Amino acid sequence: MGNVGLLYVGAVLFVNGLMLLGAVPQRSAAVLNLFVGALQCVLPTVLLIQAAGDTTAILAASGLYLFGFTYLYVGITTLAGLDTQGLGWFSLFVAAAAVIYSALSFTLSADPVFGVIWLAWALLWSLFFLVLGLRRTEFTRFTGWAVVLLSQPTCTIPAFLGLTGNYTPTAPAAWGTAAAFLTLIALAAAIARHEPATSHVGASSRAIHA
């Protein structure tokens, strides 16, 4: 069930990355954020009800709320025209929690691939904190490209692998995943560095970027 939610997280992250880059209107992206945010709150609630005290299942479900609350926060803040700084500081909390979930994936869950994925999410939410919480708008384009490029390999691809029974959480797969993510982050930095700034990007830096 968690893979179903992860699939749509890939979609909303992709759209939000494009919103950061000024390619998608903010209010249009807000609607998808509300849909996915609601989904990512309903699914873990169902999982918690079904867990029957299983701490492993409860731990797995608990992390999903981080995404659900993020996207609901994005959608409501955008549509209501609220200041985004609160969302930025919440993103710092999410980034810190993601580091903990990463450590638990490497140890308790014995899933090094998702250990790497959680670290990638920690990076993305740290960037949201910089752009929104600290108003470091010079990172807006890099954040947008990082979100666009990492949205599919951190969400959609592992979701489809899990849904089809082809997900393999092995150490070699984790190393390959880490190498791919580092390459994509470097590519995002290169594109952002050489891409000319536009008025759309400047406008997006004042909006919701998570």
From TrEMBL:
It is a multi-pass membrane protein. InterPro entries: AmiSUreI_transpt, AmiSUreI_transpt_sf. It holds the Pfam family AmiS_UreI. The keyword Oxidoreductase does not apply. The chain crosses the membrane at residues 6-24, 31-51, 57-74, 86-104, 116-135, 142-161, 173-192. GO terms for cellular component: plasma membrane. It is found in: Cell membrane. Keywords: Cell membrane, Membrane, Transmembrane, Transmembrane helix, Transport. Belongs to the AmiS/UreI family. This is Putative transporter protein AmiS2.
